[in-house]
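Quarterly update, task 2.4: zinc ion-bound model.
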Amino acid sequence: MRSITLTDVDHQIYNTEIKPWLPRRIFDAHTHMLINDCHPEMQKTMFGADDPMLIDVDLPWLQAWWKALLPGIDVRGMVMGYPTTDVITADENRIVAEQCQPESYPFAWLVKPKDDLKQLEADIEQYRPAVLKPYMCWVEGKPMNDSTVTDLIPEGQLALADKYGLAVMLHVAKPQGMGDAENLRDINRLADTYPNCQFVLAHCGRCFITPNAELMVKTLNRADNIWMDTSAVCDAGVFLTVLKHYDRSKILFGTDLVTAVAFRGNYVRMGSSWHVCTDAMVARPSGQAATPQRSTFAAYEGMAALCFALRFLEVSEAERNAIFYENGERLYKRYLTPTD
Ligand SMILES: [Zn+2]
């Protein structure tokens, strides 16, 4: 039996830097399950595979993390499978659908660029996913970080998303993420071409560092069907930039739980790039060691950075409510059962 334990440092960070700015209900717009059997080579293909707290993520385990990290808050969200090179998408998609449907959670369907369109449409009809989720590790024929948006998700799949009014969860490639000129040109054009497709730019357009976010907000169109989520970003400068310069009614709170942010550590800037940093990587035998007693979850680092930006910019309670649940519930309203 696994149990999630919070330290004094976790409680202190949550109670002083996060909780005062949270509403009593949250829609987590970016989460993942991870079914071990669907990732036969996970020990080779993914970060965190050796940590039993981060793998074997069925819906109850995701909910256990919500409960532990956001105690007393009514949380629901949008759930995806976990994109790795070895994932058996047909199996993981079906399991995600079966576990999310009874809870009325919107969920995503992992799609590879070469997936057959007829089969994809049949799956959309049968399982009713709210989201298509491409990922760059499935792009063939070029280094994955050079992928364009339509390398990740070809226009035939976008046309299906448009036909069924689905969202597309985009973790864009390129060293500058959504700050990249070609990505910006593509997303502005595609949002116009496929107006019923809802483009969700994960991780603030995968701008984990401030200069990329500044490039993004200069050129990214404000459009009814372009959204961004806050998941896994741990840099307050990124949040200050998007909250100040982008449309707050299109920003969705998301965590990226479980595997990508439930470790003790952070996502840190290193010059023009960013990297996962766990407490073990920076542990020292003495002094200010980043021991488990002093570090906290990457999920809390991200929430603390977001809440810092919200209070620094004096974002109103109404706008905070929009970011933490109303925007996500508006995007996915036809999949959700109403709450009070
Ligand atoms: Zn994710």
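Highlight for this quarter: The domain at 8-265+298-333 is CATH 3.20.20.140 (TIM Barrel).
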